[in-house]
Design brief:
This protein has a three-stranded parallel β-sheet. Strand 2, helix 3 and strand 3 form a beta-alpha-beta unit. It has four helices and three strands. The protein has one domain. It is an alpha/beta fold and about 100 residues long.
Length: about 100
Amino acid sequence: MKANEMVVDNSPANLLRSVDNVLAALDGKKRLDLFQCARVDHNYPIEETIKELKGFVEQGKFDHIGLSEVSADTLRRANSVSRFYCFIYIAIECFTGERRSMA
């Protein structure tokens, strides 16, 4: 993904770039409490994305992982890798790109 391009890219390199950009903008003046993926990237299993983010938590880059616009199944799969502190569900399939499942 190129800077300022609006596409879903949960590749390890882009996750690191995104986190480091936020930390650079904060310039050590504030702590990054929560990093949240706003969309699911179907090119990368959610388990791998969460595993990468969990590594950033362990490195001290931020404290908590969040997800938004994911299905209940995706949340369960992600939660098998790491616990969540923020979850936003929007039940509009055209935005989530996932099948709706509330079970």
